Amino acid sequence: MAAKPQSNRRQFLTGQAALDAVAGIGDKGDASVDQSRAVAGRAETETYLIQVERTAMACDFQILLNAGEHSGATEIALDAMDEIERLEEQLSWFRETSELSRINREAASAPVVVESGLFDLLAEALTISQQTGGAFDITASPLWKLWGFHRREGKVPDESEIVEALSRTGAHQIELNHKTQSIFFAREGVEINLGAIGKGYALDRCAKRLAAGGVENFLIHGGQSSMLARGRRAGISEANPGWTIALRHPLKPDQRLAEIHLRNRALGTSGSGNQYFHAGGRRYGHVLDARTGRPAETLLSATVLAPTASQADALATAFFVMGIDECVAFCEARPELGALLVAPGERAGTMEVLTVGIAEDEWRRIE
User: Fold this and answer.
1) Does residue 137 belong to any structural domain of this protein?
2) pTM greater than the 0.85 cutoff
3) 357 and 331 Cβ atoms separated by less than 8 Å
4) Residue 115 falls inside a structural domain
């Protein structure tokens, strides 16, 4: 992998750093969304972007801003990045000192009082779990560990092990008390993991800080599977406002599948293209269906457009598990949502692309 480009303070202020970084943006490990189009764009006039970057939550977060629009935008963006680091300290499943780890250690013995922002996130996660019939589930850690994905050492468990792990999963294992703002687990061995919603939550918190500072036009991404856009990229035609991003092809990682014009919405993509293992002639991906205890296999990728990044992230995971028919029904009942679903085709190596809730002028297929 090429060395990571460095950006000095002068580059931040001129916006040149974002342009210099274009060549490296597509090289990140488990990226599902390639955003070089968001940077290189299709500006009708020459424009510059300011790029502010921070590594946290096992990925690179970036904020892209139109250069010259707001005199204090860079400092506000840097402050927003500090917020992401604070959230990692709170939400990390891997850090023993995090608030999440404390909950996992103590909540089966007695209710644990939770910070207000985290409590609201837990409540949202349980609501989405209920809405999706358990396709999104923050209690799936026992299954995740059973299949070896927590150490990236995949293994196929036997049926009795799956049944035992399933007995410790499910939203019914969690009790939230809104009066005391506390959480309680129904039994020992229950764990929560916010990996499928935490990055989106961090983007939402970033966006609030930017908006509070008066910054109106920006694109934020965490890794490349979670994005949030506000306003528009400078120089883009009025007929196509917003930010243009490219979705990566799920079967051909070096190619792009489609472009999406993201307008005051968030986007999340879920797939198993980079975390999987082979056993007995079969491929097992890391996105698990907590209802069956096994890896989801219906789709190749699921991309969701939603009002918030936490929604987009959680629903992308849920949709990958649910499959096409359930996803279409879910979106049709919620006009604020959109989805681009990629399913295997009838012949090996082929695929089918379906959109629901995405207008014709919001996307185009590239391949």
Assistant:
1) yes
2) yes
3) yes
4) yes
Integer CA distances (angstroms), 266 to 81, 182, 307, in order: 18, 29, 6
Residue 2 has pLDDT above 70, yes or no: no
Would you state the pLDDT for residue 17?
36
Which residue type is seen at 362?
A: E
DSSP character for 8? -
- CB neighbourhood size of 292 (10 A): 13
The total number of structural domains in the chain stands at: 1
Please indicate, yes or no, if residue 270 is contained in any of the structural domains: no
CA separation for the pair 222, 60 (Å, rounded):
6
- Burial code (b: 16+ CB inside 10 Å, e: under 16) for 57-82 equals bebbbbbbbbbeebeebbebbebbbe
And the tokens for 356?
């629901």
Please report, for the domain that includes residue 115, its CATH number. 1.10.3980.10
Decide: 140 and 290 in contact? Cβ < 8 Å: yes
Residue type, 102: R
The residues, ordered by sequence, that sit 6+ positions from 314 with a Cβ below 8 Å of its Cβ are 124, 125, 128, 136, 196, 197, 200, 268
316 lies in some domain: no
Q: How far apart are CA 236 and CA 135, in angstroms?
A: 38
Give the domain range for residue 163: 99-185
Q: What is the pLDDT of residues 106-141, one digit of tens each?
A: 999 999 999 999 999 999 999 999 999 999 999 999
- Give residue-wise pLDDT tens across range 65-99: 999 888 899 999 999 999 999 999 999 998 999 99
d(CA 33, CA 30): 9
Contact assessment for residue 15 and residue 233, using Cβ atoms and an 8 Å cutoff: no
